[in-house]
UniProtKB/TrEMBL annotation:
This is Helix-turn-helix domain-containing protein. The keyword Transcription applies. It comes from the Bacteria. PANTHER family: ARAC-FAMILY TRANSCRIPTIONAL REGULATOR, HTH-TYPE TRANSCRIPTIONAL ACTIVATOR RHAS. It comes from Paenibacillus lentus.
């Protein structure tokens, strides 16, 4: 299985998570355990039923429980939704995948219940166990524990599965946003560009209400810092009349520049500005600005991990598709291919 870039044990406070898991187990009447993307438990079982405790403690029977867990987790990932199935003792279990940004980071394993209904959609017994005299005698010994398993309707099981799926995904998404915001803040502090407005937020606001706002603000600050450092920060014109326009363009890389506005800045007419600008640069104003922005974009592609969308926004392109089209016009490559080619050359 491909390694997830998210570590569930680092993203969330497992002690607090386990308390929530205990509460969910009590409310739903299901035993619950959380595993990482490898299938390794990151919490203890919440209210594991006595029957399943005894089965899982048996060296022979427990191997079938482990096979059920492993196969059900993979099936839930494949379906990208909760997978309801029968274990090797025909007990109802659920594998609930936690998937963030198309990355599988773990699963909630819930169940250890029996169905009240008889008329339900056919459920797969994911692992079959050959019957023999020894296991039959063990089951007979555990019969009272088996009979005491909680009984739920099929509708209750599916409702609980959906609830756990959406609730756990939401909680982890929020935890990832918080983690990302903290990392951005550290980077911004290192660069000396952390927004002063963040210091005014209380601890509770940073933790809950303003996580997304903090992340957006920090992201903008970091991108702006990198943009300012890209290319040169000055252009010395041989014609001093044009210098105010060049100074403005290099100081405001994220803006869309209009010829008329630049002419007004230089206190000359648009037609005269256009003539002397072409003479100075060898290109008309629109082509020069587009080429310059692509050069700046190339530097960010080479030196940062910013997404194509972020780079497009950083240089004021109306939309990403237009940025890609413009980039390809000047470089005969898309931004993604350019970045990959550059990286492959630097690795050689």
């Amino acid at each position: 299985m491909v390694k997830s870039r998210f570590d569930i044990g680092r993203i969330i406070d497992l002690e607090k998570w386990h308390k929530l898991q205990d509460s969910l187990a009590l409310v739903t009447k299901m035993a619950i355990i959380t595993v990482d993307y490898k299938g390794v438990p990151v919490t203890k079982h919440s209210y594991c039923q006595s029957f399943c405790q005894k089965v899982r403690q048996d060296s022979y029977l427990s191997q079938y429980c482990q096979k059920c867990d492993a196969r059900a987790g993979l099936e839930a990932v494949r379906l990208n939704k909760p997978y309801i199935y029968l274990c090797h003792f025909n007990i109802i279990d659920i594998a609930i995948p936690i998937i963030i940004d198309d990355q599988y980071i773990g699963a909630i394993m819930a169940g250890q219940v029996k169905l009240r209904d008889t008329d339900v959609p056919p459920l797969e017994q994911i692992v079959t166990r050959p019957s023999n005299a020894e296991t039959d005698s063990k089951f007979a010994a555990y019969k009272n524990d088996y009979d005491s398993l909680p009984v739920l309707s099929y509708e209750e099981v599916t409702t609980i599965a959906d609830m756990l799926f959406h609730l756990c995904t939401y909680i982890i998404e929020e935890a990832i946003r918080k983690d990302a915001a903290i990392e951005m803040y550290k980077k911004a502090m290192a660069l000396g560009t952390a927004p002063a407005s963040l210091d005014k937020l209380s601890t509770s606001e940073r933790t809950y209400r303003h996580i997304q706002a903090i992340q957006n603000e920090l992201s903008s600050v970091l991108i702006e810092t990198k943009v300012k450092k890209s290319a040169g920060d000055a252009f010395l014109s041989s014609n001093p009349v044009l210098q105010p326009a060049f100074d403005y363009i290099y100081a405001h890389k994220s803006e869309n520049f209009k010829l008329q506005a630049m002419a007004e800045l230089c206190h000359i007419s648009p037609s005269y500005f256009s003539r002397i600008f072409a003479k100075e640069t060898g290109e008309n104003f629109t082509v020069f600005v587009a080429r310059l922005k692509i050069e700046w974009a190339k530097q960010l592609l080479e030196t940062t991990d910013l997404s194509i969308n972020e780079i497009s926004d950083a240089f004021g392109f109306s939309d990403t598709s237009y940025f890609i089209k413009t980039f390809k016009k000047f470089e005969n490559l898309t931004p993604t291919i350019y970045r990959n080619v550059y990286k492959s050359r630097t690795m050689d």
